[in-house]
Design a protein that fits this description.
Blueprint (H helix, E strand, L loop, with lengths): L1 H26 L13 E6 L7 H12 L4 E8 L12 H11 L6 E6 L6 H9 L8 E4 L10 H11 L5 E3 L2 E2 L10 H26 L4 H4 L10 E4 H6 L11 H10 L5 E2 L4 E2 L6 H11 L1 H4 L1 H12 L3 H34 L6 H14 L1 H8 L2 H8 L8 H9 L1 H8 L1 H16 L11
Parallel strand pairs: 1-2, 1-4, 2-3, 5-8, 6-9
Antiparallel strand pairs: 4-7, 5-7
Helix pairs in contact: 1-6, 1-14, 1-15, 6-15, 6-18, 10-19, 12-13, 13-14, 13-18, 15-17
Length: 435
Amino acid sequence: MVGLVILTRGAVSLFFLERSLVWYRKNYRNDNNIKGKLPRIVIIIPVLREQKRIIETLKYFLKSFGKYPIKIVVATTNREFEKKFNGLSTQRLVENYIQQNSLKEKISLINYPKKYGKKAHQLNYVLEILNDKTDYIAVYDADSRPHKLTFDVFYQQMKLYPEAEVFQQSALFVNNYNKISNFFLRASAILQSRWTLAHEVARLLRQSGKETIVSKLVNAHCVGHGLIISLKMLKIIGGFPEETMNEDLIIGYLLRVKGVKIFPLPCLELADAPTTLLGLWNQKYVWFWGPLRYVEYYRFACKKYNLDLRSRIKAMVLVFQGLISALAWLLSGPLFLVALILVFFVDSVVTVVVLILAVVVYGPAQFVVTVDNFEEYQEWSGQKLKKQNLSEIIETALMSVPAILFNSIPPYFALFSEIRYRFQNTEIYKPKTDD
């Protein structure tokens, strides 16, 4: 039974992984011939203690997107001073950079003045001063390096889908892949990238395509970097929720509750993967709160939008899908381990074959497919990425086993923290995922 569950899950994931790759191959276009009046894009970069990264990121955005009608807003926060640091603050560094290079027309800094709050508070504080509803808001992180043709692709998609209000550029976590010497961490980067292609992109495609009864009920989520959404739609849904731990996953949920489609952009961003075990742990630990709190998202939507019975049923269907994702995250590692152990203890040849096939399809096979397409990721992202040779692919595929097993461990600690918070009112510590 365990073997069949793992095999089925692996086969389905492999199918959608390939389907996403085929979609990028068919839809990516290296065409920057964009003409006519274009809506302005306000790029918001929320930052917290990002002194090492922010200036280089601003240089990249100006060089890559300066020809478009853009405005870059760096959203700092006084929460930065809750920890001691050497040198200038992020706010002062950015202010100096703007002044020294006469960039007030292209870049502005807005500081969230309070010493509490999260990313959502910074984003909403910026939104309060924006009132041109023809604007589009693009949210990126301090280390983001989106494709230089991202906005060409965005404007092209707007012409193809004039009714669209929301777009999502997905990220693969392989930007620093060749700089990571530890094969376990490299395999973990591939695992997360494989998840993006097999699940995140696949969900976006299911609900943004031809409208059917099923597609109306398909869940999809937004990511905090690469989200491009009209200011009009963002204000309709009430901005970024400040009451929840994560602000990005719930945005996707609220949009889907309202029947809004989220269109994937046929170009990628390559993001950095954690370079330490602690960084990887923190990433998995924090990210798990996204799917873990879908019931909270449901209550939030019901209260905020006063949903009728039909909308509540749809909202519950979306919640069910989200909770299934959380459960799958928790159980995938343990079930994968059970399948591995059973290979050495069962007597039935058929069962052994099923178990081995399940392990290979769920782990190494998907990792091989993901790593083997580095040349195409380079084209779709516009970023340099070294093609892996056969020995490197094999090593990464073998390390898929411990990477999959580890992947489920931090979420259990997040779950325990959530339980303590609910029953003992113990404060939840949310570390920066790159600390």
